[in-house]
Specification:
Strand order of the largest sheet: 2-6-7-10-1-11-12-13-14
Distance between the termini: 81 Å
Radius of gyration: 30 Å
Number of helices: 15
Length: 478
């Protein structure tokens, strides 16, 4: 009988914080500037330059710690982690080893077996390194220090996850918490959220952990899931062949769906950590923590509860809408204007989601204003525009954020509710289509659909469909 194996996974998640300036200097943190344009003597490691801590970094770290049920370390300090790498300009990184700012927290995820707590060992603050750009054409490597000194928090989980699904659920939960706090946009494609996966396998029932490897270079949830499956299979194969799994850092290549060794795993002593001499320890008072706690926004789980009570929209809708803080904000602001939560939810769930998919966007990219969506909801409700015109107008709102009232007036799209004009058009349609009329009178109910369609065509889609049906039936049955 073949052996059963269990995968044991812990994550180190790096999150770039949404501060305007870097952690130890006043350079911009904006993504995508020209190489080395957001730099100064501090973040390029010039001799004699001194770091000054950005207070907002500490506040974001505390906010994330509180939202993930951590204890806040009220006396905490920075340490110097020494290593040489071309993108690391000082030849050391300022990080936290001995007294990280947050410890012993957890987040709860949903699994098929029910709710599960994933422990958070610690969260620490540190600075990001620069970025090496490998130029194949010139056969050289260039370095861009724009990212050097961008503030990071590193969230280190306990080895509590057992499958790729649990890992993705944990990352999704973490990402939403951090986005709701406004602490980071957590865009994996821009590197503002990056996860390293520590993975080992052991026989089911074993109490000892197996030898773990760490995988880097994972920049999408799909890549993370594939890397976990790939590494699990690689380690089981080694064990089955009687070979040892080596503790090392591996790089995942998502195109080849294979990981290869980068370096053997270092221990803390390899980095010769010592207290950072250029920064004083941070003393975090109870008052400061309370002040941050009071400012904490409503997180997704609380929003879901409130939506059920306040808005009476389906559970499924609430899940999708709160899955993006930006979308939830649009929903709430639009509902506050027009007071029709069910209708607003329908526009977001159906047309908005369709257009997001069509234009290959994310919910966070929505740029229309709640005011214009609310105006459209009111126009449709009042019968000023019919449903097909409303969809056409919504597409313009989605793409160009137009004022729907003005657009409907300028394009002459308002529904015709004038009974006299409708009746004469319908009489003409009935006269022009004797076959459909006799089909209807012979009991073919569907024939009326054709006549409605012809009327809408004649009215350029602007007739009130309810009124058209009513008048048609009067004429046909008369």
């Amino acid at each position: 009988m073949s052996k059963q194996y269990e995968t044991v996974i812990g994550l180190e998640v790096h999150v770039e914080l949404a501060t305007k300036t870097k952690i130890f200097c006043s350079c911009s943190t904006e993504f995508g500037g020209a190489p080395n344009s957001h730099t100064c003597p501090v973040c390029t490691g010039m001799p004699g330059s001194l770091p000054v801590l950005n207070k907002q970094v500490v506040e974001y770290a505390i906010a994330v710690g509180l939202a993930t049920n951590c204890n806040i370390t009220q006396y905490c300090k920075f340490d110097r982690k020494n290593y040489f790498y071309p993108d690391n300009p000082q030849n050391y990184q300022i990080s936290q080893l001995y007294l990280p700012i947050c410890r012993n927290g957890y987040v709860e995820i949903d699994t098929p077996a029910g709710a599960k707590k994933i422990g958070i060992h610690e969260i620490h603050m540190e600075e990001d390194a620069g970025k090496l750009i490998h130029d194949e054409w010139e056969d050289c490597s260039l370095v861009d220090y724009n990212r050097s000194g961008v503030p990071l928090i590193e969230i280190v989980s306990e080895p509590d996850m057992r499958s790729a699904d649990e890992v993705i659920a944990y990352l999704e939960k973490l990402r939403l918490i951090i986005q709701y706090l406004g602490a980071s946009d957590c865009k994996l494609n821009e590197g503002s959220m990056r996860a390293d996966v520590n993975l080992s396998v052991r026989e089911v029932g074993a109490s000892e952990f197996g030898t773990r490897t760490e995988m880097k270079n994972l920049n999408s949830f799909k890549a993370i899931a594939r890397a976990i499956e790939g590494e699990r299979a690689r380690q089981i194969e080694l064990i089955e062949e009687g070979k040892a799994v080596i503790q090392e850092t591996r790089r995942w290549d998502d195109n080849k769906e294979y990981s290869y060794a980068m370096r053997s795993k270092e221990d803390a002593q390899d980095y010769r950590y010592f207290p950072e001499p250029d920064l004083v320890p941070i003393s975090i008072s109870d008052e400061w923590i309370d002040e941050i706690r009071k400012r904490q926004p409503e997180l997704r789980s609380e929003k879901l509860e409130r939506y059920k009570k306040e808005y009476d929209i389906p559970d499924y809708d609430a899940q999708i809408i709160t899955g993006s803080k930006h979308m939830a904000d649009i929903f709430e602001a639009t509902t506050a204007i027009c007071n029709k939560p069910k209708k607003v939810s329908n526009w977001l769930m159906v047309e908005t989601m369709r257009l997001i998919k069509e234009h290959d966007m994310e919910p966070d990219d929505i740029s229309f204003s709640p005011k214009n969506l609310a105006a459209l909801v009111d126009l449709a409700e009042a019968g000023t525009v019919n449903s097909s015109v409303a969809k056409e107008v919504f597409e313009e709102i989605f793409l160009h954020d137009i004022d729907p009232k003005k657009y409907v007036e300028e394009k002459g799209l308002a529904t015709v509710n004038d009974e006299g004009a409708l009746r004469s058009t319908i009489e003409q349609v009935v006269a022009d289509n004797p076959q459909s009329v006799s089909d209807y009178k012979a009991g073919k109910e569907k024939a009326i659909g054709f006549l409605v369609g012809q009327t809408m065509k004649a009215m350029k889609g602007k007739a009130n469909p309810g009124m058209v049906n009513q008048i048609l039936k009067e004429i046909l049955n008369g």
